[in-house]
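Q: I'm writing a short explainer about DUF58 domain-containing protein for a general audience and would like to include a description of its predicted shape. Could you first generate the structure from this sequence?
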Amino acid sequence: MFPFNRINQSHSNSGADNVSSESGNRGSVYCTIKELMLLRFEAMALSMPSARRAVRQQAGAHRSPFRGRGMELSEVRLYQAGDDVRSIDWRVTARRQKPHTKLFHEERERPVLIICDQSISQFFGSTTTFKSVRAAQSAALIAWMAIEKGDRVGGIVFSDNGHHEIKPARSRKAVMRFINVIADFNQALSINNPAPGSEAFTLNDALLEAQRISKPGTLIFVLSDFLDFDKMTEQHIQILSKHNDVAAIRNYDLLERELPPPGTYSVSDGANIRTLDTQHQTLQQEYEQHITRFNQDLASTMTRMGIPYIEHNTAEQTRETMQKLMKLVM
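A: Of course. Here's the predicted structure. Afterward I'll give you a sentence or two in plain language.
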């Protein structure tokens, strides 16, 4: 799919012109450290997946897509009325000739790893803000939610030019480091950036890094437009999900779902410029069919892998998307 990083109308056949210019409201094109810091207050109204999930699953009730926090053995005591017979420690029972039960408590923390895509394909938006800004906001909000829960927070922020990783740590300093990196990568984006070449850092590279630094039981969020999703991406996510909990948030813009109104447009990926004539009905139909097929294939692949998956429209507030995601994973 051609990455619409910049679309300018060549003829005034409609009111849509320069839908992704860097001029105008800078706040909708780039995010700031202050903005990402203030999301901490939004995080207080939301909650991360907790140990309730693991307890329900252990008891044979509704199975969640996530494993939840781990449970550590706390003590072994005499069996009491009402104890779950499945928790009986048969070795201790045989040795002491009296039934004994294992007691567990919730692990105090779990690692949370956030993969935030700030590549040039994310630097696009036709309505409220850019995909790259929504990804940055989502990453920061998840980080604040995790630290409020007492979890360890880290992440991988990447662009076409490279990446920066922050290993999970349970401190607000770790979140601030993460936020600073996000803002740096976000503000480095420009329509004048060269188009990514064969050596560009990709989502697949980021997922490979996640395999290297994540420990079993890590809660991993992947924030991207997934435009370069392929079989290798699927394999990397499957490997990660074997020993971790993985959720995916796809950023998209309405203009990516439907071509702009009939007219002649200049389309650029930062290096090449092409002319797009949307007056041809055949082109519109073929484009919409291609996009629909891509979206359906991506969603069905995530479902088949058991990955909680949600789409984030640039016109939708980040908190609304997080609320939907938490309903899927809680």
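A: For your explainer, you could say: Residues 9-26, 51-64 have pLDDT under 50 and may be disordered.
Q: Perfect, that's easy to follow.
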